[in-house]
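Below is a filled-in request sheet from our internal design queue. Each sheet records the structural input a requester submitted and the sequence that came back. We keep these sheets so that new team members can see what a complete request looks like end to end.

REQUESTER: design group, bay 2
PRIORITY: normal
MODE: inverse folding
CHAIN LENGTH: 284
BACKBONE (tokenized):
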């Protein structure tokens, strides 16, 4: 271990000082001379080092005890983790009162999840550009992934509802299968490693008494509404198609709807469905 050179000792900043302290302590052991010129400075630096260590430990313990405040916010809407909720919670969506549950599932609305985002936002967030938003062509139309997945759950529920109540299926099996597949892949992508505790009991239940930390869906909805694409899906999908669905601009949006708008972009054709995933995963 070398003695720190003079110019090294001129270094400024807390880190440099701590570095030198550890070097100095090595020198102290090696030299063990009472006249060591480094000794006095070493003694002065000890309390600073201890203070620094204590501060670090306190900071770390705060971070560990409140992880939600220190997680990075979501990439696009800048959402933080805001609250905890229990894993096992029977909500009205799984009520034995099927009227109640059916009403809730049918009332899920994902219209606000269709948003118009400026190309400048896309560029600064590593997003590809998208289909033009007709009422401001400097923006692209996107569907937020959470809303997409919620839409998928909804149509799976609707399919099961129609089956349960002996009605004809209103969605194609192909669409249902796409949705099941999308949710399956989301789970694989999340690779959620949270261990759910089991209990010795007759029913298979896990996670009782455990909580997860969540973002605020309402905050995402607000962000989406602030970027509205004026989208509204009619109750019967065939009632309103294409451009008409984007003509529902809320008051104050500033957009002027032009019924004669003609898109000029090329239509993306010829790709197999879910081509990106298939290409990457090499699935048949
Ligand atoms: C079931 O839910 C519906 C809709 O909320 C309600 O009107 C009805 O009273 C409920 N039935 C029972 C038995 O609780």
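RETURNED SEQUENCE:
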């Amino acid at each position: 271990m070398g003695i720190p050179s003079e110019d090294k000792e001129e270094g400024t900043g807390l880190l440099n000082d701590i570095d030198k302290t550890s070097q100095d302590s090595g020198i102290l052991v090696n030299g063990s001379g009472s006249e060591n010129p480094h000794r006095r400075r070493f003694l002065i630096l000890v309390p600073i080092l201890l203070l620094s260590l204590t501060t670090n430990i306190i900071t770390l313990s705060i971070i560990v005890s409140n992880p939600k405040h220190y997680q990075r916010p979501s990439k696009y809407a800048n959402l933080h983790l805001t609250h905890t909720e229990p894993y096992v919670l029977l909500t009205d969506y799984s009520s034995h009162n099927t009227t109640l549950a059916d009403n809730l599932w049918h009332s899920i609305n994902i219209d606000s999840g269709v948003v118009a985002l400026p190309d400048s936002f896309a560029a600064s967030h590593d997003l590809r550009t998208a289909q033009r938003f007709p009422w401001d062509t400097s923006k692209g139309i996107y569907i937020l992934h959470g809303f997409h997945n919620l839409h998928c759950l909804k149509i799976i529920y609707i399919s099961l509802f129609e089956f349960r109540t002996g009605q004809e299926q209103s969605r194609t099996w192909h669409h249902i299968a796409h949705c099941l597949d999308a949710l399956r892949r989301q789970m694989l992508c999340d690779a959620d490693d949270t261990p759910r505790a089991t209990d010795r009991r007759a029913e298979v239940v896990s996670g009782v008494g455990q909580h997860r930390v969540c973002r605020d869906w309402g905050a995402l909805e607000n962000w989406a509404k602030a970027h509205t694409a004026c989208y509204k899906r009619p109750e019967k999908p065939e009632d309103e198609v294409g451009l008409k669905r984007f003509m529902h601009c809320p008051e104050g949006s500033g957009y002027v709807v032009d019924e004669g708008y003609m898109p000029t972009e090329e239509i993306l054709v010829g790709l197999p469905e879910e081509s990106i995933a298939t290409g990457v995963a090499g699935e048949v």
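SHEET NOTES:
- The two ends are 61 Å apart (CA to CA).
- The chain is about 45% helix and 10% strand.
FILED BY: M.R.
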